[in-house]
Amino acid sequence: MNRSKWTDPAVWPRWLKKALVLGADALLIPVSLYMAFALRIGTLTPHQYAQLSPAYFAITFVVGVAVLWAMRLHRLKLHAFDMHAVARIGAYAATLTFLAISVSYFFDLWAPRSVPLIFGAVFFLNAVAIRMVVLAGITQINRAVGSRVPVAIYGAGAAGTQLANALRQSQELRPVIFVDDNSALHGIIIGGVRVGRPDELDQLARSGQIERVLIAIPSMTIGQRERLTKTLETLPCEVQSIPSYVDLVSGKSWVDDLRPVSPDELLEREKVDLDIPEVAKAYAGRSVMVTGAGGSIGSELCRQLIDCRPSRIVLFERSEFALYEIERTLRPSAEQAGIALVATLGSVIDRPSVDAVIETEKVDIILHAAAYKHVPLVESNELEGVRNNVLGTRTVAEAARDARIERFILVSTDKAVRPTNIMGATKRLAELIVQDIQRRGAVTRFSMVRFGNVLGSSGSVVPLFQQQIRRGGPVTVTHANVTRYFMTIPEAARLVLLAGAYSEGGDLFVLDMGSPVKIVDLARRMIGLANRTVRDEANPDGDIEIVFTGLRPGEKLFEELLIDDDSLVHTPHEKILRAQEAGLSEIEVARMIKQIDAALASRDREAVRQIIVRFVDGYSVADATSADGTA
Fold first, then answer.
1. Which of 40, 311, 326, 356 has its CA 20 to 30 A from that of 589?
2. Which residues are known catalytic residues?
């Protein structure tokens, strides 16, 4: 409801408010002095006494107003009327007492010796009383014509009291009641607001007496706050949590102090130094095409390629928005380095489009990072997973072979080793196709890179855990014993570039990532790095709970990097290993592709799964749907 500026003192001009307060205090000087004489003499008409001099009143008034202005009592904010303001009024009243004594003495004007003392006391009481009356009047006006939302403050401690004092000046909220779990506080009045029991909230909310509950207990842990919030969510009103004034002044709150966690902090090993001269030499002056350039790995590959000084970077991406973002991000750096940047929309399953880009941009090297990689999504969309990951790889690899380009590097995953899910199986089939094309290609050097889980990539657990921690939990982990190998996005991208530098043809490169990490340990570490504690049976008052949700379809308890460890050989870099794994024959690959084409044409999902069973070692439909997810 809109209010007139004359009915709402809050919108009066500041000069008008000060003038009214100054005028009221100035008027109180002669009124209080007159009352002092009346009390001392014992009559309501002390002015009839001949000894009473008008000059005494005039001098006291003029000097009193001057002192009033000097002591700035009119600047005291009425809404913030507290003990400090009372003390200021008391100091001025004492000054008036001394003034009245001085006027009587120096001007030899009659006044009983007790009158100045009574005068100061009367002025003090009148000044305080008038302010209290006006403040009460303003409060009643606000209640009568205002639209302030009635609220309950949960917590009658220091923070709750501070909040109530602040809300009295607010034009939006009005404190109606405190509630507190401490029974010793029930029934007392704090700043004019009663302290009630928490069980009163439901009735107050349903009757419309409160429309919001503000939690003002900053000493609560996040876990306690979360449990209280869930309890209060059953009320038919809003529930909000308010940080303390100390937190507000320091710029902290229980949510905003969550700092970003660097992926490097989550590795339980030293970061691998992959910055070696061979990388730059392998790509300098070349035209490099990156498929899936807008993805987590593809975009990092493009960033690192700029440091290698290629002549051209071709961004090949099917997502318009992802392509726009990576092109916009890289353009300034590419122009500064004198590198041509070409943004091309296209799909890896579109052979004419791939051929046209390779020919037009005179591509020398292809880094094939385009793939569907989210395990549960590909598990339930196996036809598109096979079309994109298997046939898309075949399309780009054959285009590279036919164009006789220098090198082709496939980005693969450790989930391709004895896979129990469709995504991993499609990546293994892609590897088999690349191996087959290498055997039949005399010019282009084909190689593959197997990653572990990439920390911070889209769809990985790190962004998910960060989001869950920011919400106050719970953090969801599929199984207590799930383990994974981890690497950072820069490590993953650098490994791809190194694979291109070291490639001899048909190579499979892996990074020595140390021991696998338990996902639950990763979750605990992230909670700790966010300055929170885990809530469990040993620590029921902790902040964040970890909940086990069960393995998802096709998910394994553990991952492997190699099918045959005996095939490992070293490279010039001690942390990068090369493997030669057995593949399918040319006839088997041709039969597999023919069967895949037929299954996709008829949209036969079961046929796709049976093809994978026949051609991928270690995969079976039973394994993919087993309870424990083991290989």
1. 356
2. 415
